Amino acid sequence: MRHQAMKYAFALLAGACALPAMAAAPEGSFPARPITLVVPFAAGNVADGIARIVANALGEDLGQQVVVENRPGAGGIGAIRQVAAAAPDGYTVIYIGVGTAISQSLFRTPPYDIEKSFVPISTMTSNDVLMLASSKSRLKNVQDVVREAKAKGDRFTVGISLIGTLQHLTAELFKSNAKLDYTIVPFKTAANLNTALQSGDIDIAFEYLQPMYGLIADGGLSALAIGNGTHRSPRLPDVATFTELGYPKVQVASWGMLLAPAKTPDAVVERLNKGMQNVLNNPEIRARLESNGSRVLGGTTAQARELISSEIARWRKVIQDARIELQ
């Protein structure tokens, strides 16, 4: 079925900060003053929490404070443009996520070109997407879901948090790969989604692990599958991946990444990348990040660049195949 692309507020990991233009710091002197890390959500969001853990540790590694600046609102579009226009000196960086890659294909005319406007510094973390059912549901595994969805057709309902999010596209991806015709129902928040799921208003849902883990641990919800390739979640070791269950193309995970404006000097990018690897390989920091369900990534700038490019191409095809109307 065709789905209209509603005005969405999906969780784009983007923000905004514009600083006066100034010359790039010479190699060896960077950083000479505090760095601003822009986060597009209000304080208290999961992404904000990750950013603050990383920012504090990165500041210690660099010898200069890394200040988190929350700039929520507007779906991140204006924010990304502002950061792209900031001085390419390494003193303004931005934390983006998979939503930014998805957004490149949700508009007839994309509002920005993330690959041309920024240089990747490093990936940071990834977060798992789960297929969920109420513990009271008769749907106990993915096989039950497929069987009932085929029997009910478009009367089988699948909840997601907002149109245009990774949760939405995961639902579309599973729908296509399992050859189903269910109806996707968007909700404004994970809390609204949970209420509908536990009351039986929807059959299953796709949502991130973090907001649902407590409900799973308490027995209110059942996790039927996880979308992270062949790597089960350490927090849910008994939950099989879609790959294990026969759906190898349903490999999905959100990710967070640090970017700097294009033309930031290579030496500055390399210093920031080195600092990020030091932070992400620190056992104490890893433990703090993993405690909320995140998987720690890290890696080279080249690997981060390849991730952005591949994700843009991948989700463009999913959006086209699902016939999601562009804005």
From TrEMBL:
<keyword id="KW-0732">Signal</keyword>
<dbReference type="InterPro" id="IPR005064">
    <property type="entry name" value="BUG"/>
</dbReference>
<feature type="signal peptide">
    <location>
        <begin position="1"/>
        <end position="23"/>
    </location>
</feature>
<dbReference type="InterPro" id="IPR042100">
    <property type="entry name" value="Bug_dom1"/>
</dbReference>
<dbReference type="Pfam" id="PF03401">
    <property type="entry name" value="TctC"/>
</dbReference>
<comment type="similarity">
    <text>Belongs to the UPF0065 (bug) family.</text>
</comment>
<keyword id="KW-0675">Receptor</keyword>
<protein>
    <submittedName>
        <fullName>Tripartite-type tricarboxylate transporter receptor subunit TctC</fullName>
    </submittedName>
</protein>
